[in-house]
Each structure stands twice: as C-alpha cells, then as structure tokens.
Amino acid sequence: MIQTDEQLKALVKQKYGEIALQDKETNQSSCCGSGPCSTGTYTIMSDDYQELGGYKPDADLGLGCGLPTQHARIRKGDTVIDLGSGAGNDCFVARSETGEDGKVIGIDFTPAMIEKARANALRAGYYNVEFRLGDIENMPLSSNRADVVISNCVLNLVPNKDAVFKEIFRVLKPGGHFSISDVVLVGELPEALKRDAELYAGCVSGAIQKDAYLELIKSNGFGNITVQKEKTIVLPDEILSAYLNEMEIRDFKEAKQGIFSVTVYAEKPKSCCGSDCC
Hints:
Radius of gyration: 18 Å
CATH class: Alpha Beta
Mean pLDDT: 81
Largest sheet: 8 strands, mixed
Strand content: 15-25%
Order of helices and strands: HHHEHEHEEHEHHEHEHHE
Structural class: alpha/beta
Distance between the termini: 44 Å
CATH architecture: 3-Layer(aba) Sandwich
Number of strands: 8
C-alpha cells in the first residue's frame, strides 16, 4: 500500500523509466505502459501530434493527454520550459515555434527519459534545446527565467501540485504564461480505481477535482485563467472490468462524473510584490 509522497514519486519514476526503454507501439499495446496487454491506461488519452511543426516520431511515446504547445502562444525568441519532458516531444514542437533564437528547457526526474531526450535532440541537431534532470516541485532553474511554461499530462502524477504551481510562478517572467494539459476529475472515481497503483502511474488516480485544480492555480497568484480545451476521457470496459462489477460499470458511465483532459492557460501578473516577481 502506497502511503507517502516519496513512495508515489518512486513508483512513477520506476514505471516511466521502463517506458523510456520502449517504443510508442509497445506502450500502446500495454495496460500499464511496461508489460503486455491490449489497451494502455498511459496512452488512451494521447492526442495526435503528426500535423504539428517540429514533431519527431522517435520522441513521441504516446503519453500525453493534450496538445499544450498548440495553445501556448509561443513567440519567436521565447524561452520555454517543459515540465516532465519525457523523450522530448513537446520540447521539439515548442522549438519549431520559438525558433533558433529561442531556448527550450525540458525537466524530467527520470534519468532514462533524460538520456533518451538528449539523444533525440543531438540526432536532430537541436542545440538550443536542453534537458535537465530534476524534480518539478523544486526546479533546477533560476527565478523569472521563462516566457512560457508547458506541460503534458504530468502534474496529475505529482503528489504536491501546490508546490509545482508555486515553482511555475517563480520561474515565469512577470507577464509570462503557461499552457498545461492535464487530467482532472468531475465527481468521485470509484474507490477501486482510485487506490490502484498502476492507474496512479497511468495518469488517472493522481488526478484531482477540476474545480480544486483551477482554484489551486488562482490561489498561487495567476490571472486570466482559461480552460482552452476540454475532452472526456473514456476508459474502455476492459480496464473498468478489472476493478468494477457490471452494475458498478453501468452506474459509473451513467453518473454525471468522469475523467477529463483539460488544457489550462494562465498568466503571471506583469507586476507584483515579492522576491519571485521584482
């Protein structure tokens, strides 16, 4: 039974370390991203990147739940930070927006992912894309560094989301903004789903209520908070049947509750007081 934040983070690091050693096709045929099955909880939420500039198939492990770079309003010359950068997919798409005069920094706490991302960047010749090993609850970055912060289906895996939003506020320049795709809940998940460790690492059980998520952003000082995109995440019956009986599955589907992918935009004020702003 997982009991501490550190144990949860260790589980996520272990599972995503395993995923880093696999290709997208293997992940998409796996229940938990690291073993044989038919439908993956890691990949049922992912969107299609193929039409976006800068897309590199080798860097796409199918682990996202949105397209934050599509909504992030990145400009030429911007410094962009990607939280939980994985094999580099969103960083390379962001680079196509910020151009050679910009800078893209990916942060991930899984060594195998950092190694894979650096190899992908080297192979592509992207010398203004950097990957740093670190925890997004305590980013290895100076304050007021980024014009834009992006992240794709990562904060829901982090036990202390409040700490992450505080760090995002710290590293953004005054007037900077973020666009983050994440998994949130409306209503309560059945307890059998919530307590399963594999589903935690698969982006579901670590999610919090949508209203609480948006309030957490507001309480950390961000303004102009906007839900840019929202879609329902449909869990296949073969996943639900591993945790719920037939009646519980029917009740879950009929209830006005569920799992959603949201892409949220918010801004750090252009002027404020405190050591992180001035």
